[in-house]
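Researcher: I'd like a candidate sequence for this fold, 267 residues long. If you have to choose between options at a position, lean toward the conservative one.
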């Protein structure tokens, strides 16, 4: 009998197309050698062309799932994704406050296709309750604008965005610059705790099939933290993994296909 691998819990919504959400999180965790567990917060009907509908779960269902896993199995890191409403954000933040494990908060606001996944009324709860619980917060540039009002157009803007996100209380901010305007040859992210700065650069691949990138990156960071890696090393390894997954992304359906979570397993 093998010893149990590190334990990672994702608290997020479901993607029926399998490219993002809980499905992407669990695939990433398997690929990176940790045991993935899940708390479902919402069900979406979506495919490669967009989100057709979303239904959030009751607070008591989210709380019961979380307690069932953490109280019996335990957890070495938690990742949060789609939380849908202010009530669910507050419920999850309360649960995280009582859990002694690093937390990666992916403040999911919109889908890859531009569909809203977080009620506008929930933004205050994300700022006041969820971000202070984060070891690492991983907003993309659209989410930075939602949360701070800052529109990022260059690397100096990423610094200003990081300072603003850190002002809400996470220990580290990972500002994802994949949407920087100008078509740069590199995809650049900034990781900082307000003292250290780590610029993470990778080739930008000409591949439109990038559905699930944010979920995958956050889950990869959580997997590294569960293994005991320091935050900068966990983020560097996660960046390398998601870069490979983007390069291997494949067409699925008639719209935007997913990144390939199993790319490293098939080398």
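Model: Candidate sequence:
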């Amino acid at each position: 009998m093998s010893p149990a691998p590190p334990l990672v819990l994702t608290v997020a919504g479901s993607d029926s197309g399998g490219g993002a959400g809980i499905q992407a999180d669990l695939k990433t965790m398997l690929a990176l050698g940790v045991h993935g567990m899940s708390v479902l917060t919402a069900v979406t009907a979506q495919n490669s062309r967009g989100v057709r509908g979303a239904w959030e779960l009751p607070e008591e269902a989210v709380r019961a799932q979380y307690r069932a896993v953490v109280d019996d199995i335990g957890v070495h890191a938690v990742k949060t994704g789609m939380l849908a409403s202010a009530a669910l954000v507050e419920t999850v933040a309360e649960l995280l406050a009582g859990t002694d494990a690093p937390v990666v908060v992916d403040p999911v606001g919109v889908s890859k296709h531009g569909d809203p996944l977080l009620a506008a009324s929930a933004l205050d709860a994300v700022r006041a309750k969820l971000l202070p619980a984060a070891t690492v917060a991983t907003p993309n540039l659209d989410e930075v604008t939602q949360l701070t009002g800052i529109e990022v157009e260059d690397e100096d803007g990423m610094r200003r965005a990081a300072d603003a996100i850190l002002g809400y209380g996470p220990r580290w901010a990972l500002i994802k610059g994949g949407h920087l305007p100008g078509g740069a040859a590199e995809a650049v992210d900034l990781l900082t705790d307000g003292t250290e700065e780590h610029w993470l650069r990778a080739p930008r691949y000409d591949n439109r099939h990038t559905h699930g990138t944010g979920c995958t990156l956050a889950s990869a960071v959580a997997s590294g933290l569960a293994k005991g890696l320091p935050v900068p090393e966990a983020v560097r390894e996660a960046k390398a993994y998601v870069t490979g997954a983007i390069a291997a992304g494949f067409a699925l359906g008639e719209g935007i296909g997913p990144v390939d979570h199993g790319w490293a397993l098939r080398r």
